[in-house]
Specification:
The chain is an all-alpha fold. It has one domain. The chain is built from five helices and no strands. The longest helix has 28 residues. The relative contact order is 0.15. Bound molecules: cytidine-5'-triphosphate and magnesium ion (MG). Magnesium ion (MG) binds next to loops.
C-alpha cells in the first residue's frame, strides 16, 4: 500500500521533472533584459516586472525541454517548460496588478503558479492522472520552499522564499 503510493508519487515527480528544471534555471541564469522590456500596464505599474527576464525565460524553456528530450518526449518537455514559465509570468502579472512589488512573497501563488501553467499546457497533449495533480500540488510548495532556502543560503537568491 505505502510502497504503491510512494511509487505513484515518484512517477508524478519524474513526469513533472521538465517543469521543475524549467522553474529552477531562471533563478540561476536569469537577469538582464526584462521580458516586458520595461513596459508599463495601463495602471502605470510594470507589466510583469524585472523578476521576469528574457534570459531566465529562455534558459528555463531550453533546460526543461532538454530534460524532456532525455526522458524521451521533447514535445511534452517543451510544453511542461513553456507552461511553467507562462504560469510564472502570469502570476507576476497578477502580482503587479495587485500592487505587489517584484519579489514580494505571495504564499501558494508563488509556489503553485508554474505547476498550474505546466499542467494546463501539458494537458493539451496528454491526460494527466488526478493523483499526479494532487501529489504535485502538495509536494511542490514544500519542496519549493526548501529549494529557495537552499538558494538563499548559497547566495543564489536574495530572499529565503
Ligand atoms: N527569473 C527570470 N526570468 C523568469 C523567471 C525568473 O530571470 N522568467 C529570475 C529573476 O532573477 C527572478 C528570480 O528568477 O528574480 C526568481 O523568480 P521569481 O520568484 O518568479 O520572481 P520574483 O523576483 O519573485 O518576482 P515576482 O514578484 O514577479 O514573482
Ligand atoms: Mg517570486
Amino acid at each position: 500500500m505505502l510502497a504503491g503510493i510512494l511509487e505513484r508519487a515518484a512517477a508524478a515527480l519524474y513526469f513533472f521533472l521538465p517543469a521543475y528544471v524549467a522553474n529552477t534555471l531562471p533563478g540561476i541564469f536569469g537577469g538582464g533584459t526584462p521580458l516586458d522590456m520595461n513596459r508599463k500596464f495601463i495602471d502605470g505599474r510594470p507589466l510583469l516586472g524585472k523578476g521576469v527576464t528574457v534570459r531566465g525565460t529562455l534558459a528555463g524553456i531550453a533546460g526543461g525541454t532538454v530534460v524532456g528530450a532525455l526522458q524521451g518526449n521533447v514535445v511534452l518537455g517543451f510544453l511542461l517548460s513553456a507552461g511553467a514559465l507562462a504560469g510564472d509570468a502570469a502570476s507576476s502579472f497578477f502580482k503587479r496588478r495587485l500592487g505587489f512589488e517584484r519579489g514580494a512573497p505571495v504564499p501558494l501563488l508563488d509556489q503553485l503558479n508554474f505547476v498550474v501553467g505546466a499542467l494546463l499546457l501539458a494537458s493539451t497533449v496528454v491526460s494527466i492522472p488526478l493523483d499526479y495533480v494532487l501529489v504535485l500540488l502538495v509536494v511542490t510548495p514544500v519542496g519549493h520552499l526548501a529549494v529557495n532556502r537552499l538558494g538563499y543560503l548559497l547566495k543564489i537568491k536574495d530572499v529565503p522564499w
